[in-house]
Amino acid sequence: MRVKICGLMDPAAVAAAADAGAAYLGFVMFPPSPRSLGAEAVRALALAAPPGVVKVALAVDPDDALVELLAGLPIDMVQLHGQEPPDRVAAIRARTGLPAMKAIGVREAADLEAVARYAPVADQLLIDAKPPKGATRPGGNALAVDWRLLAGRRWPRPWMLAGGLTPENVSEAVAVTGAAQLDVSSGVESAPGVKDPDRIRAFLAAAGRAGAPANLRGPAPGRDAGDDSGHDSGQGPRHGHGRRG
Ligand SMILES: O=C(O)c1ccccc1N[C@@H]1O[C@H](COP(=O)(O)O)[C@@H](O)[C@H]1O
């Protein structure tokens, strides 16, 4: 099981996520979000992250100026969480030299038709809930996808389940969807933008148990389950700052 902790805003949260076994660390670059960071803050946090963890910058319909900034950051992947059409995803991927993870908002089965459109241009797909009406951001809304829509699907690219995941529901989410990669933001916070180290550890532990083969799973929660931390196709960090050669 590989987990991305997104919306990290300070070194303590980065350390908590990395120490608990996160495979990916996410930094939001979208000013309307309470989790948004500027390029220099992303640079500092990415450089503070331990080696071996994939550093992801999240942007929403980035303009060319932001794409230039992304290209100069010490990150390993870009997450595109807006309405970027496939040719724009391809252009951003080419300009930055970084793997691209394209978010696809899903409310109903027909929304999954986008998977076929983005698979040729994206290195990974991220399945998130569509935002509620009037939302100020397209993600990070603590809203879950109808997991049953994802059950039993074959995926043309590595994919990540996002949207409304928490330490409490992650086990069911994995059981229903079969996800091997998970992305969480709101569910490990005490307030928007404020990561809670205990919830980060609880999420990683629960995700690790959910992803383990049944005969290796620990005791069921509520019996004697501690909170021990469980612990790449564009998944692993590249040498240096993660550029494609
Ligand atoms: O986190 C944000 O503020 C955000 C802003 C704009 C686009 C995406 C954002 N977050 C991503 O949304 C999903 C789900 O988050 P949550 O766990 O439901 O809060 C996840 O991929 C975040 O990376």
3D architecture notes:
It is a single chain. The chain has 245 residues and is α/β, with parallel strands linked by helices. It has seven helices and ten strands. Strands 7-6-5-4-3-2-1-8 form an eight-stranded parallel β-sheet. The chain is globular. Mean pLDDT is 90; it is low at 217-232 and 238-245. The chain binds ligand LGQLAAA5. Ligand LGQLAAA5 binds next to β2, β6 and β8. GO terms for molecular function: isomerase activity. Belongs to the TrpF family. Residues 211-223 have a biased composition (Low complexity).
How would you summarize the topology of this molecule?
Elements: E1 2-5, H1 11-20, E2 24-29, H2 39-48, E3 54-59, H3 64-71, E4 77-80, H4 86-96, E5 100-106, H5 114-118, E6 124-129, E7 159-161, H6 170-177, E8 181-184, E9 189-191, E10 194-195, H7 197-211
Parallel strand pairs: 1-2, 1-8, 2-3, 3-4, 4-5, 5-6, 6-7
Antiparallel strand pairs: 9-10
Helix pairs in contact: 1-7, 6-7
Residues 6-7, 26, 28, 30, 33, 35, 58, 60, 81, 126, 128, 137-143, 162-165, 183-187 line the site of ligand LGQLAAA5.
